[in-house]
Amino acid sequence: MKCVYQCLGAALCLLASDLAQPLDAQGPAPFMMLTHVGNQEIEGQPLTWTKDEMLIMGRDGGLYTFPPKYAENSKKTGTMFRGYSIMEMRARLREEFDSSFDVSHSQHFVVAHPKGVWSVWADRMESFYRSFTHYMAVRGFDLADPQVPLVAVVFRNKQEYYAHAAKGGTELQPGTLGHYDLSSNRIFLFDAGMESDQDWTASIDTIIHEATHQTASNVGVHRRFAEQPRWLVEGLAMMFEARGLWDPRATHTQRDRINYGRLDDFRYFLDSRPADMLPKLISSDTLFRTSAVSAYCEAWALSFFLCETRPKEYCDYLQRVGARKAFSKYSARSRMADFARYFGSDFTQLDAELKRFVAELK
């Protein structure tokens, strides 16, 4: 499974006459604006800007980047950001997709899906949202309500899913079942269970993984507009793949919280695992580009180890990273310092404890 999750750091720009701030500034601006770029109408809040580029968060939650010279008929439309309502977002999705699609909604989600039995998806996403936010709230997180409806798009089959991604310029690796797109703030997936007349849990790992990314990025666990360590983001999503975390009906033993697929991967790579794996994983995202499978299982193992053995420190660390300044760089040195603040800097000892912990999992 490949998760499409990219750190955003683009700087955007607004016309000087519309801002009481310098041309090179980071917002968000204290207003919403409406503008037209080509044939596209964009309404939202300027997040950051330079003289050459503008970044707006649209009322749909998507990010829009363009040079200000292409903006026409711009005007202010409000003094603060206001996302679309559930019903407004539902109407927009009905216009976006053809008549073979229907749109369902719940309290926080709007889901575009083929007509028929796929209508259950909104309730499934909402059930996960409740489990995730409850898990985080009881661990001390001060969660915010999403500013926009959370959108998911469910396709009938793999062919439709891959074709839609290709049309939008997203390159998917073979075997990808779904992804969360940080730019549009949407989940895209296809229903492997429906396609094969099986139970919907045929694709549950992907659904939960991507829903974790989306929900965490919209309630304040992750900072959507600040660079977040890849191992931390992916580790949390992989922890939630275990039924003991997302299913309130599951028993509450450690076995129910183990992601056995990632555990098997970790043990497979153990003999060839370098001694400096933890510093490499923590200080940089490079391993996810060069050794993806081992990076994912390492991210899960470290996250699960810390969450199980040092729960307070893990949550405090997650909160610190999630509170980072928007559009700020996160250097290797700063990553290491933040991690050491909560877990110490003796990586040899920590690595030994991690391997011992994993060896005892059953």
TrEMBL record:
Protein name (Swiss-Prot/TrEMBL): DUF1570 domain-containing protein
Span of the signal peptide: 1-25
Organism domain of life: Bacteria
Ranges for domain DUF1570: 204-326
Pfam families tied to this protein: DUF1570
Keywords, sorted A to Z: Signal
Source species taxonomy: Bacteria, Pseudomonadati, Planctomycetota, Planctomycetia, Pirellulales
Organism: Bythopirellula goksoeyrii
